Amino acid sequence: DTEVTQTPKHLVMGMTNKKSLKCEQHMGHRAMYWYKQKAKKPPELMFVYSYEKLSINESVPSRFSPECPNSSLLNLHLHALQPEDSALYLCASSQERAFQETQYFGPGTRLLVL
Amino acid sequence: AQSVTQLGSHVSVSEGALVLLRCNYSSSVPPYLFWYVQYPNQGLQLLLKYTSAATLVKGINGFEAEFKKSETSFHLTKPSAHMSDAAEYFCAVRNTGNQFYFGTGTSLTVIP
């Protein structure tokens, strides 16, 4: 099983809402990533968890809050987002330390902030 | 800083023609190099990766790439394009400092 799943597939939220994105993998990977991707652009790294600890935070605004409850799950909590935060949010995982191995990507959550 | 440059943000080829997508990296030390593909409304899928073993790397779906240190290049090729190859292609690099960068991407259109 080389699958990373993400829910929901689509999300529309207002600027005052609180929502969460969920990512799950059952490959035994110990590094998990959140990326943000705007249309026709490459993914931009947001956060990296390595062995369930936050190891990289690419100066992401605090309205994005990651959480890694266990080695299979990664959440991204969203609060008071802005319209410019509308994008495709991709989750990825890799076997051991961050970036050492191939990253496997989920299908993404397409977020629209109104 | 380590980076990759993808020449040509859009490439169009006829069905059955050679596909050539260009990627150059900037480094004095050979890094790890990757090609990912992203089909419309999907996540990224690894096509192939170079990890300092063979310089000619074969990937999935008939794609291959050759690492050329003298040219600091890692171009992606496929002998015969299929309609299903239409997608966005990203070159990426991981350097010795364990930093990871995507290129800006190349959109491939296949003309029937």
Structure description:
By secondary structure, chain A is mostly beta strands. Chain A has strands at residues 4-7, 10-13, 18-25, 31-37, 44-50, 53-57, 64-70, 73-79, 87-94, 104-105, 109-113. Chain B is mainly β and 112 residues long. Chain B is built from no helices and 12 strands. Chain B has strands spanning 3-5, 10-14, 19-21, 24-26, 32-38, 44-50, 56-58, 64-68, 73-78, 87-94, 100-102, 106-111. Classes of the chains: A mainly beta (114), B mainly beta (112). Chain A binds chain B through residues 4, 6, 40-43, 45, 90, 92, 97-100, 102-108, 110, and chain B through 34, 36, 41-46, 49, 88, 90, 94, 98-100, 102-105, 107.
**Roughly what is the average pLDDT of chain A, rounded to an integer?**
92
Query: Which shape of chain A, going by the Cα principal axes?
Result: globular
End-to-end C-alpha gap of chain B: 40 Å
Structural class of chain A: mainly beta
Mean of the pLDDT scores of chain B? 91
Helicity level of chain B: under 10%
Beta content of chain B: over 45%
Query: Count the helices of chain B. How many?
Result: 0
The H/E string of chain A reads: EEEEEEEEEEE
* Poorly predicted ranges of chain A: none
Give a short account of the largest sheet of chain A.
7 strands, mixed
How many DSSP E strands of chain A? 11
**In this structure, how is the largest beta sheet of chain B organized?**
6 strands, mixed
Largest interface: A-B, 21 and 20 residues
Taken from the alpha-carbon principal axes, the silhouette of chain B is: globular
Task: Write a brief structural summary.
The complex is a heterodimer of chains A (114) and B (112). Chain A is 0% helix and 56% strand. Chain A has 114 residues and is mainly β.
List keywords for this structure.
heterodimer; A: 114 residues; mainly beta; 7-stranded mixed sheet; 56% strand; globular; B: 112 residues; 6-stranded mixed sheet; 4-stranded antiparallel sheet; 53% strand
